[in-house]
Fold this sequence. Notes:
Alpha-D-Glucose-1,6-Bisphosphate, Chain A, domain 4, elongated, 25% helix, single chain, 2 domains, 10 helices, alpha+beta, eight-stranded antiparallel sheet, 41% strand
Amino acid sequence: xxxxxxxxxxxxxxxxxxxxxxxxxxxxxxxxxxxxxxxxxxxxxxxxxxxxxxxxxxxxxxxxxxxxxxxxxxxxxxxxxxxxxxxxxxxxxxxxxxxxxxxxxxxxxxxxxxxxxxxxxxxxxxxxxxxxxxxxxxxxxxxxxxxxxxxxxxxxxxxxxxxxxxxxxxxxxxxxxxxxxxxxxxxxxxxxxxxxxxxxxxxxxxxxxxxxxxxxxxxxxxxxxxxxxxxxxxxxxxxxxxxxxxxxxxxxxxxxxxxxxxxxxxxxxxxxxxxxxxxxxxxxxxxxxxxxxxxxxxxxxxxxxxxxxxxxxxxxxxxxxxxxxx
Length: 326
């Protein structure tokens, strides 16, 4: 993981994040100053960022919002205080409302971003300066350390590009926390088509089958969110296993980029998970990312032990083949 250290200093009223990357300083500067690249990692998993304004000049503003799996939005704004391309920039970071005005009772922080060359590539040092101990404690209590770490640890793939970072690696499972797991798979094909393959029942029945020897017996999807869905599978003759299915609600649908749903195993009292699916296209390939939120660590470990990753890889490989024939 790129992040090597996150520390808070109650006396200096600072939080410092350090991360190392296998990329030159110019490349690192580029992803922090291009809003389309920046929004791929600035929000932590489950809270992707969208930059609506980005004025990279002293006195200019950047305005962004992060959207939770249930559609809540947290908004922020930067005022650029100084810029020394490609080594450093400084901003005043504020929590803002939908009109871009600072929110009463929420702190504003000065932040510096330093980009330094290292023997292996480059280093980011991000220092946040607070105006009081109360402000530092308030932001710390909001999960700033964990959120910043998870956000910056998404940056490697952006720096490398999708083909270089994910092609040929199959389905990857990363444990992000006690209750969060990230599944990624790169597929050959455009995002619009991958979206259709996740939302149109007739296409879903062609690939969302898990191991060979199973058939999809039910696939019901809503046209818009919120709305219920249902999947069911049964083994083909000669294949061992019992029929099973999942049901839940699609709670957010932002075609063709993001879909959030709950997932419950039909006919059981197992607690549901929340699945946050995002699609990103680059250079003719699409990265499928599914961040799964479990109710607790025990449930997370139980599901991972079922061989979920292998089953998903079989389905995604089938999806890739089927995409080429649609």
